[in-house]
Recover the amino acids of this structure.
């Protein structure tokens, strides 16, 4: 496929072309092709429907602070039947998980503070 065909396929699947993918199309179709092949493989499973997969990907995008992933996966989730309430619940779970990660990441520091209260 040429660049225009690839971008049109992305537009049909997502409703738009995320800027990072458009940039890859300009710079290196091989890398973009590999990414899209990996995406096709990951999303080809049948145990979870596309709405659930999009909500999981949304949670990961929130945890990683990826604005592009957040916007893309909100759109994919809505396109696959997610309600605004479901998206907000997924956001809430992701936000909680991210804060839990911050607490876990601070455990060595809190251990040190507990052991060195007298310093």
């Amino acid at each position: 496929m040429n660049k225009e065909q690839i971008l049109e396929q992305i537009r049909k699947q997502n409703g738009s072309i995320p800027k990072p993918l458009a940039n890859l199309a300009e710079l290196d179709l091989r890398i973009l092709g590999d990414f899209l092949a990996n995406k096709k493989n990951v999303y080809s499973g049948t145990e979870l429907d596309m709405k659930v997969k999009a909500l999981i990907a949304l949670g990961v995008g929130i945890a990683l602070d990826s604005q592009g992933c957040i916007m893309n996966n909100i759109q994919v989730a809505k396109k696959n039947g997610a309600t605004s309430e479901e998206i907000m619940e997924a956001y809430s779970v992701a936000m909680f998980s991210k804060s839990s990660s911050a607490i876990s990441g601070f455990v060595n520091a809190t251990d040190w503070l507990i052991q060195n209260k007298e310093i």
